[in-house]
Specification:
Blueprint (H helix, E strand, L loop, with lengths): L8 E7 L4 H9 L4 H4 L8 E4 L5 H9 L5 E2 L9 E3 L12 E3 L4 H7 L3 E5 L11 H4 L6 E3 L11 H15 L6 E7 L21 H22 L5 E6 L5 E2 L5 E2 L5 H4 E9 L15
Helix pairs in contact: 6-7
Amino acid sequence: MNEVVGRDDLLFVTLDTLRYDVAQELAAAGRIPNLARHLPGGAWQRRHAPGSFTYASHQAMFAGFLPTPAAPGPHPRLFAARFAGSETTAGRTWVFDTPDLVSGLAAAGYRTVCVGGVGFFNRQGPLGSVLPGMFQESHWEPEFGVASPTSFASQVERVEEITAGLPREQRLFLFVNVPSLHQPNWFHLEGATRAAGDSRATHAAALEYVDRYIGRLFAAAASRRRCFTIVCSDHGTTYGDDGYTGHRLGHEAVWTVPYAHFFLDPPPGTPGVRPEAAV
């Protein structure tokens, strides 16, 4: 990451509330082709979330504690605050001297931009202002929220406007919180009803909806230079699993999340990009 930071743009996407098992099943079945083509080996990595609900998990991730590989560690981190005794800070870790990754990247010259989704990013009160308040620039509209059937498409349109308006030389750290998987998600499945409510099937349909627009998000993020990209869930959720419904609880379906990171290449001929840098 010490080579990436300062050279590439950065995109961090949280597919809020996405279950690992659903994400993996859809990738294996070819139902999310636009995401799957970027997943190493065509599959999600199985990881453990740093929190069981949005606020706690994002506070941890913005401090450098991304979801941890679901296998014995220690696992060196991509990013870490300078902290004496850290066993997961290694030579390849980008270390920052601020309280959080967002301000650390701002200090390194990045424009930090948040496009929010769920209520913890809506800036409609003090609590909903904490996470977006970390960024130099934040965006949220009702059309981006959990109740909007077109939430992600609306977010992608805003991202396209943001990236088009940035000076080419300005490095960008773009964070997008995607609310489509979060309840309510019944409206993403044809034939589902509000009365019947959400289910594992409507959760899967919501991921298919996201996949239809994710290519536009990736294209915008890599429109100016190569972009290092992280896509993961912040936590899962339950739909009657062992009698549980929802999250903010200690169930396997909540703690286990999908994760991937990869590079997005800029279009051939992008001004200022050397041919070898786009390979």
